[in-house]
Specification:
The chain is mainly alpha-helical and 380 residues long. The chain has one domain: Hypothetical protein af1432, CATH 1.10.3210. Helix content is 62%, strand content 0%. The chain is built from 19 helices and no strands. Helix 3 packs across helix 10, helix 4 packs across helix 10 and helix 16 crosses helix 18. One of its GO terms (biological process) is dGTP catabolic process. It comes from Ottowia cancrivicina. GO terms for molecular function: dGTPase activity. InterPro entries: dGTPase, dGTPase-like, dNTPase_2, HD/PDEase_dom, HD_domain, PHydrolase_assoc_dom. This is Deoxyguanosinetriphosphate triphosphohydrolase-like protein.
Length: 380
């Protein structure tokens, strides 16, 4: 596989290595090894009961953080293969990118960030890195999963300047350096960022229609979906309902992937980076949509925010979710003994509480809140 990689692709044999050196595995590359460690982690398994848009009790067929991560991984591998980039690295980043997400999706994250405002805040991307660096405890000689630099770099998709400076102080020239010097992550990390966007726009449309909060007519009116809806009807005039929605989304997904591949090839041909590090030094990401697709994808994101994520029914559930997180945080800070001993004994109380809550599934958070307050705010 390595022999077919583009000159600017990441290469497992040239990895910047692990925080704790280890001998190579006999049958797997370094990035395959990272992927396997992520899949076997406790945090990865918990994603199956963490909200994407709809809380778990609202329906068995809605996406969760786990199914979202799998869809991102599939898209990331497809794009990486077409561009002769490192598929295993892209897959590892995709599978790990949401490991630090709280229960209840962005509502849980926002509530926990507010609770932690006086204690360094809370960023789910930074928490994902924290999960793989510190919180997973599976090995006898170190905390975390001891992943390669390139995988960790890709996991840290966003980072505030203050957190970047703090990480840089502990790890000079490490995974946070690019947020301070304006360079880019690997091409594999860049394509995974776009695969994430492509995946959630598409599957949130699907879940929104399935829930009844969006209509097929609303979807068909959105510029990004409209032409694919029209194409599907032109070829299959009798198509309707869910089959029409699926065909519209399938075509939309494919065109977005092809657009990324087409415009990234052009950008790479123009920049001609000699290596993976040369691609990092580019002034802007080289994996990209064309301008028209970027505008349409951004418009679809705005549509979803206005009509799905901020829908009164979703917002009512998320209000309850925020209350659960706030009250859990207050309860554990007041009485750390209510947490497992490994969290209760830590000196940084508020960060320990944030770590514990961030690792919860939706239903465990609901159950713990009921245990501590005597009130049930959501079904389990």
């Amino acid at each position: 596989m390595t022999s077919s990689l583009a000159p600017w692709a990441s290469r497992p044999g040239l990895s910047r290595g692990r925080r704790y050196p280890q001998p190579p595995a006999p049958t797997r590359s370094e990035f395959q090894r990272d992927r396997d460690r992520i899949v076997h982690s406790s945090a990865f398994r918990r994603l199956v009961y963490k909200t994407q848009v709809f809380v778990n009790h609202e329906g068995d067929m809605f996406r969760t953080r786990l199914t979202h991560s799998l869809e991102v991984a599939q898209l990331a591998r497809a794009i990486a293969r077409a561009l002769n980039l490192e598929e295993d690295l892209a897959e590892a980043i995709a599978l790990a990118h949401d490991l630090g997400h709280t229960p209840f999706g962005h509502a849980g994250q926002d509530a926990l960030n507010a609770c932690m405002a006086a204690h360094g805040g809370f960023e789910h991307n930074l928490q994902s890195l924290r999960v793989v660096d510190v919180l997973e405890q599976r090995y006898p000689d170190y905390d975390g999963l001891n992943l390669c630099f390139e995988t960790r770099e890709g996991i840290l998709k966003h980072c505030s300047p203050s957190n970047a400076r703090r990480i840089e102080q502990a790890e000079p020239g490490g995974v946070a350096r690019r947020f301070l010097d304006g360079t880019q992550p690997s091409l594999e990390a860049q394509l995974t960022n776009l695969a994430d966007e492509i995946a959630y726009n598409a599957h949130d449309l699907d879940d929104g229609v399935r829930s009844g909060l969006l209509t097929l007519e609303q979807v068909a009116a959105e510029p990004l979906a409209a032409r694919f809806h029209a194409q599907a009807l032109a070829e299959h005039p009798k198509l309707q309902g869910r089959r029409l929605l699926y065909e519209t989304i399938r075509r939309m997904l494919s065109e977005q992937v092809y657009d990324v591949i087409r415009h990234t090839r052009a950008a790479l041909a123009e920049a001609a980076p000699a290596s993976a590090d040369a691609a990092r030094a580019a002034p802007a990401p080289l994996v990209r949509f064309g301008s028209d697709m970027r505008a349409q994808s951004s418009a679809l994101k705005r549509f979803l925010f206005a009509n799905l994520y901020r829908h009164p029914q979703v917002e009512a559930t998320m209000q309850a979710a925020r209350q659960i997180v706030r009250e859990l945080f207050a309860a554990y800070c007041a009485d750390p003994a209510q947490m497992p001993a490994s969290f209760a004994a830590r000196a940084e109380r508020e960060r320990a509480v944030a770590d514990f809550i961030a690792g919860m599934t939706d239903r465990f958070a609901i159950s713990e809140h009921e245990r501590l307050t005597g009130r049930r705010l959501m079904p389990r």
